[in-house]
Structure formats: C-alpha cells, structure tokens
C-alpha cells in the first residue's frame, strides 16, 4: 500500500511538472525517454541550466520504473528467508556482550563457535576488523590484541545483550538512564579531542572500554548499532584521524561494503555484490574531491554520478551514489548515511544489485567516501 501511494504521488508529480519537458520528450519507452533527455542536456545552449533538471527527471523516471516493477513482482522487495537470531545470554562479568562475546575472550574460543572470519581488513586503530557472518546474517566485527584476545567489538544487528537491559531498539532515554552522562571529549596525551555531539551517537566509558552507542533518528532515536573499543587500543591511536595508507583505504572500502550489506539483510533486503569496475569510478571521485577540496555529487567539470559511470563504461539500468566526508571510520560514515533520508533510501533500495566503494584521504588524513550503487 505504501508503494502504491508512492507511485500515485510520483505520477501526480510527473503530470504537474509535465509542461517543463513535454515539448522536448515524446517517446513512450523508458530508455527512449532518457536518450532524448540526454540529447537535450548536451545541447550547448541549455547544458548548464538543464543539468539539474535532467538529474531530477532521470531519478523520477527511475523511481517510476521501479515502482511499476514492485507492483508487478512484489517478491523482489523482501528476501524470502527470515534472519535467524542466536540465543543471547546476559553477560556475567561485563555490562555488554555481542553474540555472547565479551571483551577479553579468546579468538580460538570465538572461532570455534563462529568459524573463520569472512574478511580481515585494516581499521583506524592500526589493527584488523575480522568480519563474521552467515551471508550477512548475524553480522559482527571483532578486533584482537597481540595475545589474540578481543579488544574491539561492533554490530549493527540484533546481537547485543547487556546486564543493564540495553539492547537493540531501546530508546536513547533508556541508555542515558542506565549509563549516565555521555563523554564530551577523550584525552590523548596532552590533547583533548572533542567528540561529535549531533545526537546520532553517544560515547560512554564502561568496564575499561569506550562504548559508542549509535541511534537511528528515523526510528525514534532507538539503538541501531554499538561499538566497543578497549581503552588501551583507543590510547594507541594518537591522533583524531589515522595516518592515511593504502591498507586503510582498502579496509575502509570493504568495511563500508560489509556494513551496507549487513544493514540491508537485517532490514530484509538482498545483499549486494562487489563490483571492481564501479569501485574505480568511486575511488576517482573521492580522490578528486580530496585533492580539489570540494564535496558534491557533481564534480567541478559538471559531471553527475551517472556521467562518471557512463564514462567508465559501467552498464546500469538504475544507479545511485552516497557520499560521506570527515568521519572517523566506515562505521561512523555508514551510521551517518543511515540517518540521512536520501542516503538511507539508496542503502535500502530493493532493486540495486551491485556496489563499489571508493575512499581517498586529503592532506589532513580526512577520509572521503563514495558509494556507487547500480543494477543492470
């Protein structure tokens, strides 16, 4: 019913806006419409003024096409198999556990239960996130110290258990009532680093760890993810941003890809496949923004995401792009994107099939993230 209402609204909007483009577009087939609009857009007389209208109409037609497909085949919208949740127990020694795993647990015991990690990738702390999941169900990431003991945990699925009653889906008020006042800064040596205070996450010091609780403002500020980092691991990270490296760039790219799929599966949608070709497109745009000091879907040459993908010969029927800049990690970037309506819609778009993520760093080691989604 919601999608039918959306379809009606889109058709109504298209009819109202018809005078703006009816004299230029007469074809009735979807691909022909886009072809004619492309020719108009490239006319020297109207290119600058028409570019924005072109992108808006392009997206409108894509949404219209996808809405018809939803009505024709509703089974495409959700996965048929429900997510199987593990039995969670209340932690005995600590406040929090994720998938019944607590800080300090051994890697050997963990992998006896979960099997080997699906991916190992460098994170901002100079260690690795090990990603464990079953086709992105029961997704968590774990880091280990030199003794193979857990010193970092993260999940954005319903795997959180606590002795304080905090779990996924509880309100911000419940967290604050249980944990008290969140931290406003973290000291590293002689420097106090101010923590971001945008209401989308809060940091607490609990059981010798820094616990970051992420909230979903589209679901009434309820808990949507949690990260737990041992105090000694945080202390080893000397600066606010980590030193840029090729390993960290690739780590951030694959982590953002995995986080996106974990969220899609948790919400009942299909996981996306990784695409190297569009990753190159995304990388080039991130690098261009980092080097030229701008932040926009349209680059300084006036090219849209669709233009850049076409130039790189990425064949797509529908496509979208998410951008993030300056976040500490892929975790913070992803949680921020989920709190932005348009970016959230891209992440949870049922018809997308592929994703490539490209990361680049500017001279201050601040990361730029570009996600390119598409289907064909």
Automatic annotation (TrEMBL):
UniProt xrefs under Pfam families: CAP (PF00188), CAP_assoc_N (PF14504)
Span of domain CAP-associated: 103-240
Boundaries of every SCP domain copy: 257-372
PANTHER family associated with the record: SCP DOMAIN-CONTAINING PROTEIN (PTHR31157)
Protein name: Cysteine-rich secretory family protein
């Amino acid at each position: 019913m919601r999608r039918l209402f959306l379809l009606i609204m889109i058709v109504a909007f298209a009819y109202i806006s018809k005078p703006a483009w009816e004299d230029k577009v007469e074809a009735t087939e979807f691909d022909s419409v886009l072809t004619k609009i492309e020719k108009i857009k490239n006319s020297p007389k109207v290119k600058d003024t028409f570019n924005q209208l072109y992108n808006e109409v392009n997206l409108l037609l894509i949404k219209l096409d996808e809405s018809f497909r939803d009505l024709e085949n509703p089974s495409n919208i959700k996965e048929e198999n429900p997510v199987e949740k593990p039995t969670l127990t209340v932690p005995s020694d600590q406040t929090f556990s994720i998938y019944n795993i607590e800080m300090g647990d051994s890697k050997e015991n963990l992998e006896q239960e979960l099997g080997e990690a699906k991916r190992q990738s460098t994170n901002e702390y100079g260690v690795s996130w090990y990603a464990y999941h079953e086709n992105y169900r029961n997704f968590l990431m774990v880091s280990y110290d030199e003794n193979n003991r857990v010193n970092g945990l993260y999940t954005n699925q319903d795997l959180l258990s606590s002795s304080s009653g905090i779990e996924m889906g509880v309100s911000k008020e419940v967290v604050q009532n249980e944990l008290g006042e969140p931290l406003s800064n973290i000291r590293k040596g002689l420097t106090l680093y101010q923590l971001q205070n945008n209401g989308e996450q809060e940091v607490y010091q609990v059981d010798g760890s820094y616990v970051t609780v992420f909230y979903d403002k589209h679901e009434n500020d309820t808990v949507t993810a949690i990260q737990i980092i041992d105090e000694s691991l945080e202390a080893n990270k000397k600066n606010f941003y980590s030193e840029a490296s090729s390993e960290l760039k690739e780590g951030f790219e694959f982590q953002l890809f995995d986080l996106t799929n974990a969220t899609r599966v948790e919400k009942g949608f299909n996981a996306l496949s990784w695409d190297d070709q569009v990753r190159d497109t995304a990388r080039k745009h991130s690098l261009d923004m980092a080097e030229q000091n701008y932040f926009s879907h349209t680059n300084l040459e006036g090219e849209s995401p669709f233009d850049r993908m076409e130039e790189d010969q990425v064949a797509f029927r529908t496509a979208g792009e998410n951008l993030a800049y300056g976040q500490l990690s892929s975790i913070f970037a992803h949680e921020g994107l989920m709190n932005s309506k348009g970016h959230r819609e891209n992440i949870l778009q049922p018809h997308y099939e592929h994703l490539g993520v490209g990361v680049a760093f500017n001279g201050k080691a601040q990361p730029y993230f570009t996600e390119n989604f598409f289907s064909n």
